[in-house]
Amino acid sequence: MNIERWGLFEYKLNSPTQYENPFRDVTLTAAFTCEAGTKTVEGFYDGDDTWVIRFMPEHLGPYSFQTASSDSALDRRTGSFVCIAPSAGNHGPVHVDKQYHFSYADGTPFFPLGTTGYGWTYRPEEVRTQTLTSYQKYGFNKIRMLLTPKHFEGDDAQGDVRLVGFENLMEDMNTFQNNMISFAAALKTLEIIDRDALLQNCTEIGEYFVMRLKKMQAHHPEIGDIRGIGLAMSSRGFCRKEGCIISTRSAL
């Protein structure tokens, strides 16, 4: 079997044992080995007595793997495949490049353009497909959505669907409200900010961003004042139209 570099290898396993909670009661991992070393990934329960392991090879050449599981039917299963060159358009995963930029694994620059689709996961399939088609048309390559749903009312067929207010703030489980999920998310966010020194990173990137904007400002008089701190910044722009000067302000 051939799997292209940065592609997807998927391995499915079955067990006849019945569990009260197969998501929690079974452990499953697989160790993938190639010339560059060994990487271990976790498997997951996929329903219908089936567990799945997914792996993305990063190095060309032969791979072998072996599973380890608390379930004997899933344990010590082995296999192999060959990682071949990636196909056209497969540039690999995105990572930070030169501290201030993004690029794909093969060095191709990546320019993030994001928008929101908060209730996307809870909308009808036709609406989800239409949304992705529209985003793709305008070049979006990143979507932010909610883990837990908002409330909708109306009729999809009539195009009359809208968000409605929350009836019980402690029971409406999303991170915009004062409930236990919000509290847990806030605490974890603070932990990550401290662990990864994000405030320092924000300051450094903000200073770099302002420096580059001011260099642009020297050559583009339509860029007005630049103000703010860290990455919370705004800039005033000017354009001339029919003899008038129009002033606009944008948050950055």
Structure description:
The chain is of the alpha+beta class and 252 residues long. 22% of the residues lie in helices and 37% in strands. The chain is built from 4 helices and 17 strands. Strands 1-8-7-3-4 form a 5-stranded mixed beta sheet, with no helix packed on it. It has a 3-stranded antiparallel beta sheet with strand order 2-6-5, with no helix packed on it. A 3-stranded antiparallel beta sheet has the order 15-16-17, covered by helices on one side. A hairpin with a 2-residue loop joins strand 16 and strand 17. The longest helix is centred in the C-terminal third of the chain and has 22 residues, at 198-219. The radius of gyration is 25 Å and the shape is extended.
Q: How big is the Rg?
A: 25 Å
Residue fraction in strands: 35-45%
Contiguous low-pLDDT stretches (5 residues minimum) are none
Please outline the major beta sheet. 5 strands, mixed
Number of helices: 4
N-C termini distance: 48 Å
One letter per element, helices H and strands E, the order comes to EEHEEEEEEEEEHEEEHHEEE
Shape: extended
Mean pLDDT: 83
Number of separate strands: 17
Sheet with the most strands: spatial strand order: 1-8-7-3-4
What is the structural class? alpha+beta
Q: Residue share in helices? A: 10-25%
